[in-house]
Amino acid sequence: MKKRLLLLNCMAASLFFTGCMGYKLGGGKPAGINTVAMAPVINETAEPAIEIQITHAMRQQIQFDGRLKLVNERKNADAVIELTLTDYRLMPIAYRSELRTTPDLYRLRITGVAELRKISTGEVISTSQTFGEATFEFLNDLTTSKRDALPRAAQEIATYMLEDLIDQW
Q: Most buried among 53, 122, 144, 164, by the most CB within 10 A?
C-alpha cells in the first residue's frame, strides 16, 4: 500500500512539473538580441530639453529590467532603440476657485514613438507608440512644478516603451 501511494505521488509530481517545462520568470526578449544601444532621442515637441530626461529614464529602465545589456556604442550592440518624442501636453485638471481662473492641479503627458531595430539588417523588430503621465500641483511657479513632475512622466513612458519593444508573445 505504501509503495502504491509513493508511486502515485511520484507520478502526480512528475505530471505537475512537466507542465512547467519551458516556463521562466520575467518576460521574453527578441530572438538573437542580447545587447542594445540607445540612439539619441529626437524631440519634435515645443518643450525644450525633455529628451535629456527621457534618455536618462530609458537607459535606467533597460538596466533595471535586466533582459538586455545596455552598451554605449552601436557597433557593440545587436539592436538599437530609436525614440522620437511627438507630443508634450500640459492639461489643467482641477481649479482653486469656482471661477475657474487659476488651475490648481495639472496633468503632464509626454507621447512618443520608438523602434527596436536590428543593427545587422536594419529590420524593425518591434515598435511602440505610448505616453507617460504625471500629475502635479501648481505651487509657486509653473516652470518649477513642471520640472519636478517631468521625471515621473519620463519614467512611465520609458517603462511602457521598453515593455512594448522587448516583450515577445
A: 53
